[in-house]
């Protein structure tokens, strides 16, 4: 099982983020992940941070598809790919109604169907091939070429059955949120594997992202997670995966405890079929430092 590290970029300078990325590379972390939130543009951030490192891979988990046309995203992703020496994994996803409809004023009708069309149009563009795509709701005609680039690895954030089938049939795999080992083993892994096999594709990646805190006070850390991320439990896609795992909220999916307890929980993810575990350090400043040290030592 590979180890990824999510770096919290909010409120931090490029120098601070780059220093963390350099330490991750030196420790042997497989891949650095950034989120697309309301500050730094994640792909631009990757282009800025990459010069602090030499070989480590970078991923964005994930770019919401509704605000960016496939031609625009392909141009940005291939530009970043050229700048960082072909080390990019491009994660895409649907986002959530309160952002797509509430903030952007766009329709999120039938998101699984729209995302499938989006991925069908985007895939060839990332290879530099011309596209003449006309779906029910999306049109993409054109070609994007950036010299010296390889197609970035494409993955799809997927929690429901239709999204997982699209991920298995059309991409290199999926990245999950709030999915505990039992959900990965009983639902995510078999669903995406069946789709990939039927499409004649290789076994897909399953990247499991989880809040992690190496701490001597797990209850306090879970309370912190509930206070900071509890609203995720009201978002339909997240609510479904939480219910599937029998969890009341995000705090119940966290990997928390001392070093031995966290290592034991990581083994459960590996046994469930996770191909990469994504550390998302949380908690107090001291807990985050302890968790990052553990992640760097774990590899």
UniProtKB/TrEMBL annotation:
- Cross-referenced Gene3D superfamilies, in alphabetical order? Luciferase-like domain
Q: Which InterPro entries match?
A: F420-G6PD/mer, Lucif-like_OxRdtase_MSMEG_4879, Luciferase-like_dom, Luciferase-like_sf
**The Luciferase-like domain, residue ranges:** 5-275
Q: Which Pfam families match?
A: Bac_luciferase
Give the highest taxon in the source lineage.
Bacteria
What keywords is this UniProt entry annotated with?
Answer: Oxidoreductase
- Check the record and name the NCBIfam families matching this protein: F420_MSMEG_4879
Record-given protein name: TIGR03564 family F420-dependent LLM class oxidoreductase
